[in-house]
Amino acid sequence: MADTVILIGPEGSGKSTIGKIIADALSKELYSLDRHRDELYGPYGYDKALTERIYTDQGLWAFYQHWKTFEYKAVAHILQNAKQEGDEFYGKILDFGAGHSVFENSEELAHIESLMKPYANVFLVVPCEDVVEVVRITEERRGHELGLNRHFVEHPSNKRLAKHIIYTKDLTAEECAEKILWAMKSREEA
Hints:
The chain is an alpha/beta fold and 190 residues long. It has helices at 15-26, 37-41, 48-58, 60-81, 106-116, 131-142, 149-154, 157-161, 173-189, and strands at 5-8, 30-32, 93-95, 122-126, 164-167. A five-stranded parallel beta sheet has the order 2-3-1-4-5. Pfam families: SKI. This is Shikimate kinase. InterPro entries: P-loop_NTPase (IPR027417), Shikimate/glucono_kinase (IPR031322).
């Protein structure tokens, strides 16, 4: 099973934990975009020191807006190449991180949606439908307030991009991973 698997959803929803279980089950590599920001954004002129100054001087929303250009370019690059055998992203479990699947610019969202169209295994991982409950659960999991999570949950991007939704509330990470693996297997058999 060489297909790339893409996990999207808000912060603290379980993408990384579930992704690790899936990666182990399929003998694939888990690649978290959040953990590789510097190398992914570098080709587009990303300056980590400038980004930190923006956060310090202007706050979380300005920081987020600054990141959006780099997130869009990195995601577009990944999606344009991850279907090609031999590409560094081909056949991996890609944990997009919360911001990498939310696009404020409608043209950018439409472009990412078109690039994601050939990917059958795009899973939105989220505790439940209720926004307030999602924020409560994810903040409880992380142990602190998640300043942008309500925005990530309410924004239409994730639901437009997802091919499947996995609700994690009251399920273990293993049970969620099994649901994803079952959905992948069912699609292959169809």
